[in-house]
Amino acid sequence: MYRSLSPDKTLETIELLSRRIHERFPLAGLGGVCGELLAIATASKQRAEWISKPNYLLRVAIASTLALGLFALFYSISLMDISFKTLDIGEFVQMTEAAINDLVLIGAAIFFLVTIETRIKRARALDALHELRTIAHVIDMHQLTKDPSKLTQRVIVTPSSPQATMSAYELIRYLDYCSEMLSLTGKVAALYAQNFRDAVVLSAVNELENLTTGLSRKIWQKIMIVNKQEIARQPIDGAS
Digits of tens for pLDDT over the chain (240 positions)? Predict the structure, then answer.
C-alpha cells in the first residue's frame, strides 16, 4: 500500500495546495500556476496509466507481421535448389556472405518491430516530462523577485523595481508554496517511471527531480534568511 506513489493522492495534494494558495494570495499569479500544475497532473495520471498497460492490439499486429515474414523467408528458402556437391569455394563464400547480410537485416527488422511499443511509450513520456520541466521553470520565475533583504534593509527603489508588499510571514508562506509545488512536480514525473522501466525515461525523470530539488534548495535558502532576520529582530522588539 505504501510502496508506490498513488496518483489520486498526488492529485488531492495538489488540489489542496491550490486552495491554500488562493485563500492566502487570491490575487497572486501563483494560484494560476498551481491550477495549471493540477491540470498537467490530471493528464499525467491518464498518460501514466496508458503507458503502464500493454498495447495488445499493437503486439498482435507485430507478432502477425513477424510470423508472416518468417513464413515467407522459410518458404523462399525451401524453393531454392542448392547442391552442395557442385558448390566451389568461391560460390560458398558468396552464399555465406549473402546469408550473413540477410540475417543482419532480418535481425534489425525484428528489433525495430519488437521495440515499436516501447519507443511510442517513451516518446509520449518524454513529451509529458518536458511539459513538467517547463512548469518547474515557471514556478521558479514566480519566486525570483521575492528578495528577503528588502524586509530589513532600506533599498533605493527604481521605477522597474518589483514591489515588496509582503510581510515576513507572507513571504515565507509564498516561498514555501513554491517549494511544495516543485516537490509535487517531481512526484508527478515519478509516476511515469513507476511502472515503465525504460532507461531513457528513468534518466529523464531523475534529471527533472534533480532540477526541482535544486530550485527548491534555492527557495529554502531564502526562507532561512527570513527566519534568521525575524529571530534577530525579536530581542529588539521585546526590549522596545
Answer: 677 889 999 999 999 999 999 999 998 899 999 999 999 999 999 999 999 888 889 889 888 988 888 888 777 767 666 655 566 676 667 767 777 887 888 888 888 888 899 999 999 999 999 999 999 999 999 888 887 777 666 666 667 666 677 788 889 999 999 999 999 999 999 999 988 889 999 999 999 999 999 999 999 999 998 888 777 766 654 444
Q: Would the pTM of this model clear 0.85, i.e. be above it?
A: no
Query: Which residues, other chains included, contact 136 with Cβ-Cβ below 8 Å and sequence gap of 6+?
Result: 182, 185, 208, 211, 212, 215
Q: In whole angstroms, give the CA distance from residue 70 to residue 84.
A: 24
The x, y and z cell numbers of residue 44, run together, are 499525467
Q: Rounded distance, CA 224 to CA 15, Å?
A: 27
Cα–chain-centroid distance for residue 72? 43
Grid cell at residue 172: 515565507
**The pLDDT value given to residue 161:** 67
The domain limits of the chain are 1-150+161-240
Closest Cα partner for 151 from 226, 211, 59?
Answer: 226
Contact call for residues 32 and 179 (beta carbons, < 8 A) = no
Count how many residues are written for the chain. 240
Give dist(CA 65, CA 152) in Å, integer: 72
C-alpha grid cell, residue 220: 529554502
Residues 6+ apart with CB under 8 A from 25: 31, 170, 174, 177
CA–CA distance, 7 with 41 (Å, rounded to integer): 8
Separation between Cα atoms, residue 164 and residue 108, nearest integer Å: 62
Query: Using an 8 Å Cβ cutoff, are 137 and 192 in contact?
Result: no
